[in-house]
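User: My collaborator and I are trying to settle a disagreement about how two of our proteins should look. Neither of us wants to argue from intuition anymore, so we agreed to look at predicted structures for both before our next call. Could you fold the first one, then the second, and keep them clearly separated?

Assistant: That sounds like a sensible way to settle it. I'll keep them separate. The first protein:
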Amino acid sequence: MRIRLNGKETALATGSTVVDALALLGAPDSGVAVAVDGDVVPRGQWQTELREDAVVEVLTAVQGG
């Protein structure tokens, strides 16, 4: 299936989840926020399957000043 992941069209296997998309990005285990189709997805729901053409945005907290 195809999704838009952080602005780039990306292919994932059918049945892929938010966790799978994060793994593809190499996102860290903490300090991450995810939105699917404009809605924030709580960490407890990251096993939810993505749908074809979903728009997934992943934000990573950056420390510094």
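The second protein, kept apart from the first:
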Amino acid sequence: MSDNAVHPFDARGVAKRFRHAAIFGALESLEDGEVMRFVNDHDPLPLLNQIQQRYGSQVGIHYVARDPGNIVIDFTIQLGAQAAAAAPAAAMAGGGGCGGGGGHGCCS
């Protein structure tokens, strides 16, 4: 696997009733450092809020294009960001965590 692996996801071809579930499934199938390049015909602000609530710093969000009718967003999996954010809290709480470790994002 390359740290620069970019996987396209064109939401315009997915039925609206399945769209968010398909996006979450695609994000969850990526490894640390991989990118899903999301393409849509509108700015998905409610989806971005859901991603931030669900994954926090595990998923980086970067607009590549933000033109009317052409929205392109790179979602980058950054599990190290979650581990770094959790480390001070875990140290203060005396450890804990989710038990699995390994930086796989099981605590999301």
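Some points you might bring to the call about the second protein. The helical segments are 16-28, 45-55, 79-93. The longest helix spans residues 79-93.
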